[in-house]
Amino acid sequence: MRHVLDLLEADVARVYADLGVTGYRPRFSPVVRALVALGPLSIRDLAAAIGVTHSAASQTAAQMTRAGLLTLERGTDARQRIARLTDRARDLLPVIEAEWAATAAAAAELEAELPAALTDVLISAERAVVSRPMRTRIADAAATLQAGLPPGDGGATGAALRVISAAR
Fold this sequence. Notes:
Shape: extended
Distance between the termini: 25 Å
Order of helices and strands: HHEHHEEHHHH
Number of helices: 8
Number of domains: 2
Strand content: 5-15%
Strand order of the largest sheet: 1-3-2
Structural class: mainly alpha
Number of strands: 3
Largest sheet: 3 strands, antiparallel
Helix content: 55-70%
């Protein structure tokens, strides 16, 4: 999954490079779109709006600040930071919106070529991992593998499987 995501993101990044837009990464677009739609947001609210963790939103906001696309100001709570678009980001909005629309159309075309809609598969995978985390699945699989070993056999592999399965 990571490899496919990296391929897709690299191609979108090339679109921005072709347009002469420097310092802009595809992962910035959901942030820009959320701030356009909702106005300035705390990092926590921004994370919720774009469906990522607080840590991921904070890291992206820091990158965008370094790129001159966001300002981060203290909120009413000293721990809170409020993200606002800069003039540079607002100037890029027509390009960002055009890329977003073209990418959405290209993604729909890609999905039509696949045996199942990629978006549906990813949403289903996310739900499955949230309901039963991969760590739990690994521990259960290790227990099954360990149970299949002959008694007193397995050596280091058997010992590792016991440790993994015990971490449920």
